[in-house]
Amino acid sequence: MKLDIVLITGMSGSGKSVALHALEDAGYYCVDNLPPELLRAFVELELSHEATRVAIAMDVRSATSLPLVPAQLSELRAQGLRVKPLFLDASTDTLVRRYSESRRLHPLSRPDVPDQRRALIDAIEWERELLSDIREHAHVIDTSIIRASQLQGYVKTLISAPRSQMTLVFESFAFKRGIPTDADFVFDVRMLPNPHYEPELRSLTGRDEAVALFLQQQDEVAQMLQHIEQFLDHWLDALARDHRSYVTVGIGCTGGQHRSVYLVEQLGLTFASRWTSLTRHRELDDR
Questions:
Q1: Parallel, antiparallel or unpaired: strands 139-142 and 167-174
Q2: pTM for the full predicted model
């Protein structure tokens, strides 16, 4: 019997509790704020109970022992266990706003400092440094401008993906709302013909047949699609050899509604024959 382990880490205020609740809804036995020193003992206990799915949240409150985590995950994988580390991130401005709204103290904040905003920013940047190594070994989800329901959907989709050597995540987005920080590669397609300027297509999306037909008739769109496919074909095997579990490819246009959505859908179909491929649309999923 195989044990699926999902490890949730990330920045304080980035949504770890939301992600953990999503995993609990999906049937995982969840433990919050487990000290890294207890990880192997906890896994052994769950194996003795013949558990099949567990989710563990760790955060900066265990700062002194966080450096143990990457090696521990490697050891668990060597035992044949399935391990999916997810790292939730958000911009510093977003985290400052969330803490200001909740009036909670950051775990690394110093309440005795007169300038509390400056102290909060310093604490967030210190936390980024402490978690940087774990972030490098995890799939990153940027929660800066997504709702809780979107985050829950992203987490459930990731954990339900078939186990494979590497999973591709194709994500469309709008440049006007910022570049997703979880993207490993970002392609700018704003120079392509824009269906927004066709009155009958303006209210539709890149998922609609009429928009797809319009874009398929544009030589530049076909050329862009070919270039992105060639780039990924060249580098994906190397990334897999580097033991990457997830690779996120961001495709951005002005509004994240037509061109980027169409290209993400096409790329998802193209690469599904070789890799586990997931598609998501940051701006459409927010509706």
A1: unpaired
A2: 0.83
